[in-house]
Amino acid sequence: MERLSVDAICEKIQSEETFHAVSNDYGFTIKIDSYVHYVCGAIHDGHQFRKDLWDNCLHSEYDRWYEEDPETKNMIQSHPIVISGRDSRFEYDLNRFPEEAVFETAWGKQLWREPLSESEKSFSLTKHANFYKVVSTLISKLEEKFGICVVYDMHSYNWKRWDREVPTWNLGTSNIDNERFGGLIEIWRKDLEAINLPHSIKQTAKINDTFYGNGYFLRFITNNFSNTLVLATEIAKVYCDEYNQIIFPEVVEAVEDQLKELIPKHAQLFFNTFKT
Question: What is the mean pLDDT of residues 166-193?
Answer without folding.
Answer: 97
